């Protein structure tokens, strides 16, 4: 499958089977994440792989939008100690977003389902995740990716809308 086909195939999956994601698959997802670009190659990301049932339950309760039945969650967090200095400090958000997208695309290519659930910039959600994982204040949870074997198959699509394209010549 081409990269373009994988992009169109990637859809948010919110229902999963009970089948576990393997350690090898998790390793592949993390390698894909860390292949993402980052501003000045600072790589200000940290990844928290949640497999423990009790921790999964707690993490899924950190937001109103994260109560899916996935068997795996990867938290992508920004390490502000590795971020660029001001005024470019917040580029860590873009860097972690690129890593998150790479995880979603790799999951799709492997036949896994995934759903990107936002954490940052909602302080309440970020604080709950920080507390559950006992994270220091310089580690800011940016996204929560629910991952597992899909129990639904949304159709591939593009959401292309030419009204949102502005050509400057």
Q: Report the structural category.
A: alpha+beta
How large is the share of residues in beta strands? 15-25%
In total, the number of strands is 4
Low-pLDDT runs of 5+ residues are none
Structure description:
- The protein is an alpha+beta fold and 169 residues long.
- The chain has one domain (3-152): NADH Oxidase (3-Layer(aba) Sandwich).
- The protein contains 5 helices and 4 strands; from the N terminus they run H-H-E-H-E-H-E-H-E.
- The protein has helices at 3-9, 23-33, 53-60, 91-109, 123-133; strands spanning 45-50, 72-79, 113-118, 139-148.
- A 4-stranded antiparallel β-sheet has the order 1-2-4-3, sandwiched between helices.
- Helix 2 crosses helix 4 (91-109).
- The longest helix is centred in the middle third of the chain and has 19 residues, at 91-109.
- It is globular, with a radius of gyration of 16 Å.
- The relative contact order is 0.24.
Summarize the SSE layout with pairings.
Layout: H1 3-9, H2 23-33, E1 45-50, H3 53-60, E2 72-79, H4 91-109, E3 113-118, H5 123-133, E4 139-148
Antiparallel strand pairs: 1-2, 2-4, 3-4
Helix pairs in contact: 2-4
Characteristic terms for this protein:
alpha+beta; NADH Oxidase; 33% helix; 169 residues; 4 strands; single chain
Summarize the structure.
The protein has 5 helices and 4 strands.
């Amino acid at each position: 499958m081409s990269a373009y086909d994988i992009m169109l195939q990637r859809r948010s999956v919110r229902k999963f089977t009970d089948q576990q994601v393997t350690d090898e698959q998790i390793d592949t997802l993390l390698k894909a994440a860390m292949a993402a670009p980052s501003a000045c190659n600072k790589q200000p990301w940290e990844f928290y792989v949640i497999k423990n049932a009790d921790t999964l339950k707690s993490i899924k309760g950190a937001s109103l939008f994260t109560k899916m039945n996935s068997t795996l969650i990867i938290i992508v967090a920004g390490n502000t100690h590795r971020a660029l200095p001001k005024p470019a400090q917040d580029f860590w958000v873009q860097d972690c977003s690129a890593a998150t997208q790479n995880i979603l695309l790799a999951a799709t290519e492997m036949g896994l389902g995934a759903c990107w659930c936002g954490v940052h910039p909602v302080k309440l959600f970020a604080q709950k995740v920080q507390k559950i994982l006992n994270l220091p204040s310089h580690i800011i949870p940016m996204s929560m990716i629910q991952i597992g074997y899909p129990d639904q198959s949304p159709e591939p699509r593009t959401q292309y809308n030419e009204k949102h394209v502005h050509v400057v010549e």
